[in-house]
Automatic annotation (TrEMBL):
<keyword id="KW-0520">NAD</keyword>
<keyword id="KW-0812">Transmembrane</keyword>
<comment type="subunit">
    <text>Binds to the short form of prolactin receptor.</text>
</comment>
<comment type="similarity">
    <text>Belongs to the short-chain dehydrogenases/reductases (SDR) family. ERG27 subfamily.</text>
</comment>
<dbReference type="GO" id="GO:0006703">
    <property type="term" value="P:estrogen biosynthetic process"/>
</dbReference>
<keyword id="KW-0752">Steroid biosynthesis</keyword>
<dbReference type="InterPro" id="IPR052834">
    <property type="entry name" value="3KSR/17beta-HSD"/>
</dbReference>
<dbReference type="GO" id="GO:0004303">
    <property type="term" value="F:estradiol 17-beta-dehydrogenase [NAD(P)+] activity"/>
</dbReference>
<dbReference type="GO" id="GO:0047024">
    <property type="term" value="F:5-alpha-androstane-3-beta,17-beta-diol dehydrogenase (NADP+) activity"/>
</dbReference>
<keyword id="KW-0560">Oxidoreductase</keyword>
<keyword id="KW-0444">Lipid biosynthesis</keyword>
<keyword id="KW-0521">NADP</keyword>
<comment type="pathway">
    <text>Steroid biosynthesis; zymosterol biosynthesis; zymosterol from lanosterol: step 5/6.</text>
</comment>
<feature type="transmembrane region" description="Helical">
    <location>
        <begin position="230"/>
        <end position="250"/>
    </location>
</feature>
<protein>
    <recommendedName>
        <fullName>3-keto-steroid reductase/17-beta-hydroxysteroid dehydrogenase 7</fullName>
        <ecNumber>1.1.1.210</ecNumber>
        <ecNumber>1.1.1.270</ecNumber>
        <ecNumber>1.1.1.62</ecNumber>
    </recommendedName>
</protein>
<keyword id="KW-0256">Endoplasmic reticulum</keyword>
<keyword id="KW-0443">Lipid metabolism</keyword>
């Protein structure tokens, strides 16, 4: 039987490159592309079929920032499939990004510039807002919507003949210093993206502890610095044009400057070929590209406290109970 692979955030960037690369690895899979609206989903499907005309590609409409949309999509997927073999939790947003040029200058003077350029530590801030569910938009889209989707799809993910996989797109920008259990939605800070990605790392660790025995395994990847629609919004286009030659040079010293979506999907595709039982649940798998353009994967230990992860998971369960009360008609 063909494997069923669901990819969120599939309409562009790493998500679209991942879809194409997965079909190059195994043209027999059934690929389900999840996009924010039907128009994007159909355009994505057409773009994939243009290169892989014999592929089995279906679509599902889901806005991860809307609980009603997530619940409707989960219900549709439960009706359509008997199991899911891979779920790539790739969709994400970084609204209103701002660069702290003063911090960059300070990094240059203190010798920390390369570290700052590869992790965006102390460099990037965002302006977040509440969504229609009364949740912080970045937290809801990057993490909580995915969490609810998984919870609603557990019947397709657990107890199958072969293990099923969750593969989260995290970031090297996921930092403990940006995350707080008392403000896990990051309503009071300006690093909502970093906080949401650290929350992703915590969630993956606990999911392994809870669900490995039921045949569900979770992994976390970092695509590196990829030039995508999200990245291009950080600076004006003319600045990116000036910076690109420098960024290609930086790649000789910073291997996580993958730059293209194809390169950024390296770790995602590598995990597709691995047996989950042998993977390190506390590792983040980084897509890397050498200065000469060779792609490879580098596992790095995540800076996560397992006790904090467990406490955070309990808070997610409490929030799930609170928020889903109003959507009884969409629950089985």
């Amino acid at each position: 039987m063909e494997r069923v692979v669901l990819v969120t955030g599939a309409s562009g960037g790493v998500g679209l490159a991942l879809c194409r690369r997965l079909l190059e690895e195994d043209g027999r899979i059934h690929l389900c592309v999840a996009c924010r609206n039907a128009l994007k989903a159909e355009a994505t499907r057409d773009a994939i079929l243009e290169l892989h005309p014999a592929a089995q590609v279906s679509t599902v409409e889901v806005d991860l920032g809307s609980l009603a949309s997530v619940l409707r999509a989960a219900k549709e997927l439960r009706c359509r499939f008997q199991r899911l073999d891979f779920v790539y939790l790739n969709a994400g947003i970084m609204p209103n990004p701002h660069v702290n040029f003063k911090a960059l200058w300070k990094g240059l003077l203190t010798g920390k510039l390369l570290h700052m350029l590869t992790t965006a530590e102390g460099v990037m801030t965002q302006t977040d807002r509440l969504n229609g569910d009364g949740l912080q938009e970045v937290f809801a889209t990057n993490l909580f919507g995915h969490f609810i989707l998984i919870r609603q799809l557990e019947s397709l993910l657990c107890g199958n003949e072969k293990p099923s996989r969750l593969i989260w797109t995290s970031s090297s920008n996921a930092r403990e210093s940006a995350f707080s259990l008392s403000d896990y939605q990051h309503a009071k800070g300006q690093e909502s993206y970093s906080s949401s990605k650290y929350a992703t790392d915590l969630t993956s660790v606990v999911l392994n502890r809870k669900l490995n025995k039921q045949g569900l395994y979770s992994s976390v990847v970092c695509p590196g610095l990829v030039m995508s629609n999200m990245t291009y919004r950080i600076l004006p286009v003319f600045l990116w044009t000036l910076l690109m030659p420098i960024m290609w040079l930086i790649r000789f010293f910073a291997k996580t400057y993958t730059l293209t979506p194809f390169n950024g999907a390296e770790a995602h595709v590598w995990l597709f070929k691995q047996k989950p039982e042998y993977l390190d649940v506390l590792a983040k798998y980084h897509s890397c590209t050498s200065g000469l353009g060779k792609n490879y994967v580098e596992p790095r230990k995540m800076d996560v406290d397992e006790e904090t992860a467990e406490k955070f998971y309990q808070k997610l369960l409490e929030l799930e109970e609170q928020t889903l009360e109003r959507y009884g008609d969409l629950l089985d």
